[in-house]
Design brief:
It is a single chain. The chain is an alpha/beta fold. The protein has two domains: 160 residues, Rossmann fold (3-Layer(aba) Sandwich), CATH 3.40.50.1370; 151 residues, Rossmann fold, CATH 3.40.50.1370. Helix content is 36%, strand content 15%. It is built from twelve helices and twelve strands. The strands form three sheets. Strands 1-7-6-2-3 form a five-stranded parallel β-sheet, with helices on both faces. A five-stranded parallel β-sheet has the order 10-9-8-11-12. α2 packs across α12 and α6 crosses α12. The radius of gyration is 20 Å and the shape is globular. Bound molecules: N-acetyl-L-norvaline and phosphoric acid mono(formamide)ester (CP). Phosphoric acid mono(formamide)ester (CP) binds next to α2.
């Protein structure tokens, strides 16, 4: 594996899930693979889970890890070609990326959408420069449009907690005070569309996501109706995708907050969220603290999803 940005990069999903569950049984079984190999993690944005789980996965595989927070201590990077660099940016990504590549064997990149130019965001301009110019296998630690390590961990979690062969999985928009990317819901849809689940998306009108990820999945605008009989509720906020409202907040309606009354409409659904979560905006204290909340187990599986990806990349290097 040389690139990991989307579900298709994993190939057969059942094989990937099986590999993940095996690794979870013995996460140190492939220690030899990473000997004298170095992972570089490059963060343009904040992170708790990705930062820790990715380092842990790399250490499980015997790798060395280096972390660069681009906005804290590194030179400010220009990303546009042709710019006269007389401003506050000291270095261009076109030099910085191959230099970073020269010090490591695999690179993970976190670079969120900027919401200035939809074409740049959806063209994954920054992530693609790493893929093109680093000379190394590159995986997304949440790009402008996808967060595949999260969605893969979500799928592993659903596999572990499902009580029927084809569970009903509902992804629900929920309110949030700040503009958030579409990367998490895009990737969740990308994975659920390939998984053996009944997938339903519910959101207020205007929050339709990119069709390349939704791919004809069922959209139910009535949240209560969507929740009926659900086995998993996956809550997430995102900003509008469609023009002319790209990157805007169209609603902060707390009627969409996931609470015990709505969870009561489900088939004793498990509650999921990628975290970080804002309590009593996205979900009430009672729901996230209930025994049906599996957000901590979900976050723990980030170590496993990442270990599968790093293992496959290390196997390709040899
Ligand atoms: C980010 C997002 O919604 O994409 C990261 C989630 C993993 N969340 C925030 O910025 C709060
Ligand atoms: N879920 C997730 O990616 O969390 P962080 O932003 O803390 O890495």
């Amino acid at each position: 594996m040389n690139v990991f940005t989307n579900v298709k990069d994993l190939g057969n999903l059942n094989v990937a899930i099986k590999e993940a569950l095996e690794i979870k049984q013995n996460r140190f079984a492939y220690q030899h693979l990473g000997k004298n190999k170095t992972l570089l993690m490059v963060f343009f944005n904040s992170s708790l889970r990705t930062r820790l789980s990715t380092q842990k996965a790399a250490m499980n595989l015997g790798m060395n890890t280096m972390v660069l927070d681009v906005n804290q201590g590194a030179w400010r990077l220009e990303t546009e070609r042709g710019v006269i660099m007389d401003g506050d940016k000291s270095e261009h990504l076109l030099e910085a990326v191959p230099v970073m590549g020269s010090y490591c064997d695999i690179i993970g990149v976190r670079s969120f959408a900027h919401f200035e130019n939809k074409a740049d965001d959806y063209g994954e301009k920054i992530l693609n420069q790493f893929i093109q110019y680093s000379g190394r296998p590159v995986f997304s630690m949440e790009g402008a449009t996808t967060h595949p390590l999260q969605a893969f961990a979500d799928l592993i979690t659903i596999e572990e907690y499902k009580t029927k062969a084809r569970p009903k999985v509902v992804m629900s928009w929920a309110p949030h005070p700040k503009v958030l990317p579409q990367a998490v819901p895009n990737s969740f849809a990308d994975f659920m569309n390939e998984a053996d689940v009944e997938f339903v998306i519910t959101h207020p009108e205007g929050y339709e996501l990119d069709e390349q990820f939704v791919r004809g999945a069922k959209i139910e605008y009535n949240q209560a109706k969507a929740f009926e009989g659900a086995d998993f509720i996956y809550a997430k906020n995102w900003s509008a995708f469609r023009d002319p409202h790209y990157g805007q907040i169209l609603s902060k309606d707390r009627d969409w907050t996931v609470d015990t009354i709505k969870m009561g409409l489900t088939n004793h659904a498990k509650f999921m969220h990628c975290l970080p979560v804002r309590r009593n905006m996205i979900v009430t204290d009672d729901v996230i603290e209930s025994p049906d909340s599996i957000v901590i187990q979900e976050a723990a599986n980030r170590e496993i999803s990442c270990e599968v990806v790093l293992k496959r990349m290390l196997e390709t290097l040899k």
